[in-house]
Design a protein that fits this description.
By secondary structure, the protein is α+β, with helices and mostly antiparallel strands. The protein has a single domain, classed as Jelly Rolls (Sandwich), CATH 2.60.120.10. 26% of the residues lie in helices and 35% in strands. It has 4 helices and 12 strands. The strands form 3 sheets. Strands 1-2-9-4-7-10 form a 6-stranded antiparallel sheet. It is globular and about 40 Å long.
Amino acid sequence: MAARAVTRQEVSAWRPRVPGVVEVFHARFTEHAYPMHVHDVWTLLIVDDGAVRYELDRHERGTPGDTVSLLPPGVPHNGSPATSDGFRKRVLYLDLSQLDESLVGPAVDAPDLVDPLLRRRVGQLHTALTEPGDELEAQSRLALIGERLRGHLRPGLVTPAREAAAGWRTACGSSWTRVSSRA
């Protein structure tokens, strides 16, 4: 008797009380395929197990390794398991207050971001969103994620976190000074 793959689907979705997050969606699919569709909000997803294959604006894409995928609003996409084992994903649907429409083009060009810190932060935000009473933590984590996403989508954009990371300034009393990059 031949072994038969078990079709598994686990889905949970909710609307948290965190400004900017429209919905949270966690799913495990082995065979489900999404038809071509669009959202009117940003789709920020991480895949915890397996991989997702999708088309975005008629270009084949995927979620290899530890990527963070950002699908822009109004752009057609689909999705299906990349392997017979399926995938387990966590998705945040973010409104336009988090990322504005000027970032749609850069997100279409490079929707899959390889950034371990961003991935960790998205995972931490999902954890905060599952715990009632952690809305303030979730808002703080969302702000950090938004800043990092904007940095990926607008590489020339200088943000306070980018300046600090690049060693441009540090707080010295009430003034700001450049930090030397020489050790």
